[in-house]
């Protein structure tokens, strides 16, 4: 998997995919799981059939090198005059560092996933939005004059999910998107949401 002592991403992807293919090709999995072809995506995608679900669920698996690289100056992080995150959190993120994933054939791509592990991400908010859309499926409920109500509803919805410690994945509600989140971090989010709901103006910019 190396060339001139360098680990070659495309070789890693092929090796990883062969291992995944070998694992899912066992008789008990063969009719339930299929894998996609190698693509420009860093992930190997599995399509898994569940007996109680009519459609397959896609699962992405990605080989990653835990290189713990320093954040480069071109990342422009943290931004000047930014008050978030705290100095303690910045130090923790720098300690975690940046990893590398095999996306391009001959170049490794930086991955910031580990830096976001304890944080809420846009993916969590997307799932909150999906659940809100399911409960409010009509276009009339998303008209301009009702957008503030929808945002407020989603804010309370997120608060409830955090307090329960369970945000179900929209496409497979048996998966809890908070399962690996730090409870202390989630509690800080709860405090911030409550502060926002009590006095939203300081959080809103013109």
TrEMBL record:
It holds the Pfam family Mab-21. Its cofactor is Mg(2+). Residues 118-194 form the Mab-21-like HhH/H2TH-like domain. SMART domains: Mab-21. The lineage of its organism: Eukaryota, Metazoa, Spiralia, Lophotrochozoa, Mollusca. InterPro entries: Mab-21-like_nuc_Trfase, Mab-21_HhH/H2TH-like, MAB21L/cGLR. Keywords: ATP-binding, Magnesium, Metal-binding, Nucleotide-binding, Nucleotidyltransferase, Transferase. It comes from the Eukaryota. Residues 4-113 form the Mab-21-like nucleotidyltransferase domain. Belongs to the mab-21 family. The keyword Coiled coil does not apply. Gene3D superfamilies: 1.10.1410.40, 3.30.460.90. This is Protein mab-21-like 3. One of its GO terms (molecular function) is metal ion binding.
